[in-house]
Structure formats: C-alpha cells, structure tokens
Amino acid sequence: MTKCPKCQKELEDGFSFCPACGSGITPAATPPESPVQPDADQVAEQLRILAEKEAEKERKKAERLQRLAEKKVEREQRTAERKALMAQRKQEKAQKLAQSKAERAQKPAQGIASDTAAGAAQKKPLSPTIVWALIILVIVVAMAATGTVSYFTVKHFWAFSSLVSSGQV
C-alpha cells in the first residue's frame, strides 16, 4: 500500500491518481536487483549439456548421411543388375535371330515355294452366310455413323442375322 503525497490517504497499489484529491501518484522506485553470478559448476554443467546435444545432432546427421550413401549404393547395384540382364536378353535375342536366319538359309528354295503353295491350297473360302453377315454389319455401321440407324433397323438386322446363321438364307 502507498500513501498519497498530498493528502496522505492510504491507497492500494496500482493507482496513478489519488481518488480523494486527484493528485498524481508516482510509483515508488524499487532498488535494482543485483545480478546473480552463476556458479562455475552450473556453467560447466550447462556447457556439458550443450556439448552433448551438439554431439547427438552430429551423430544423427552422420547416421542419416550413412543411410543415404547405402541407399545410393543399393540403387546403383540394382541399375547395374538390370543393365546386365538387358544385355543378356539382347544377346539371347540376337543368337535366336542368327539361328533362325541360318535355318532359313539351309532350306532349299524349292521347299519354300512348295510350302507357300500348300498353304494357299488349304485356305477355305468364306461361306456365303459369313459374307452376308459382314455386308449387313457394314450397312448398319454406316447407318449408325450417319445417324440414320433406328431401333427398327437394328431389330431387322438381328432377325436377318439369325436367319443367316441358321442357314435359312
């Protein structure tokens, strides 16, 4: 509690003016606190703690760099393995190609011509049923492309195609 310098009335702390007389109240000056000198043991302990924290940070950083280096080595090994496998496959493919060329070169020219003629003779012509079905399909697709296809057209197409597939047409 402080007193008003003019009317000497007791006031609670925190007032800037006296409520009784209105005079200004200046806060009482407090003596400055003397700085506390830290103990040498406390300073040494704080420095030791800071040094431990820094050492831990450096250890973690070194571990992280080590993991990154290991990952890089693993990645390079996988890349080298992939390249070796690709080269091996390429070499195998080249060997197969050379072998097939050699086999083709050993066949007599007459044998190749007779194989082609035999293959052409074995091909069967398309049946009329399949030809009609393909013609109808082309017509419906053309109508659909021009926008003139309707439910009626599709219905009749399916009816006709069932007749064709059953052999009635």
What is the structure about, briefly put?
It is elongated, with a radius of gyration of 51 Å.
Explained architecture:
This protein is mainly alpha-helical and 169 residues long. Among the domains are: 55-107; 126-169. It has helices at 40-106, 109-122, 128-146, 151-166, and strands spanning 2-3, 10-11. Strands 1-2 form a two-stranded antiparallel sheet. A hairpin with a 6-residue loop joins β1 (2-3) and β2. α3 packs antiparallel against α4 (151-166). It is elongated, with a radius of gyration of 51 Å. The N and C termini lie far apart (122 Å). The mean pLDDT is 79.
| Spatial separation of the terminal alpha carbons | 122 Å
Share of residues in strands: under 5%
Main sheet overview: 2 strands, antiparallel
Q: Give, in spatial order, the strands making up the sheet with the most strands.
A: 1-2
Topology as H/E string? Answer: EEHHHH
| Multimerization state | single chain
- Secondary structure category: mainly alpha
Roughly how many Å is the radius of gyration? 51 Å
Overall spatial form: elongated
Q: What share of the residues lie within helices?
A: 55-70%
Number of helices, counting only DSSP H or I runs of 4 residues or more: 4
Q: Low-confidence runs (pLDDT<50, min 5 residues)?
A: none
Give the mean pLDDT.
Answer: 79
- By DSSP, the count of extended strands is 2
